[in-house]
Structures are given as C-alpha cells and as structure tokens.
Amino acid sequence: MLSEIATLGRKNTTRRRIRDLLLSWLISGEVDVSELVIAVPEEAEA
Predict the structure, then answer these.
(1) What is the pLDDT of residues 8-39, one digit of tens each?
(2) Quick check: 27 and 33 in contact, CB under 8 A?
(3) Scanning 2, 17, 36, 40, which has its CA 20 to 30 A from the CA of 30?
(4) Cα–Cα distance, 3 to 16 (Å, whole number)
C-alpha cells in the first residue's frame, strides 16, 4: 500500500509539471488551439 501511495504521488507530480508547462505554452501562444474541436456530451450542454 505504501508503494502505491508513493507511485500515485510521483504521478501527481508529473501531471502537475505537465499541466504547468502546457498552461504556460497556452498563455504565451506557443500552442495554437484556434482550430481545436472539443466534443461536449449533450448532458453537459444543458
């Protein structure tokens, strides 16, 4: 169980770093999302 906790902690750290990197790219305009199409389930549109 302790090894699972450690593994999840490492995964969270990795995801946090990726999120921060992608966010900085989005804010600076390095990533173009102008043509991005996101499918939204009908339940979420209401």
Answers:
(1) 999 999 999 999 999 999 999 999 999 999 99
(2) no
(3) 40
(4) 20
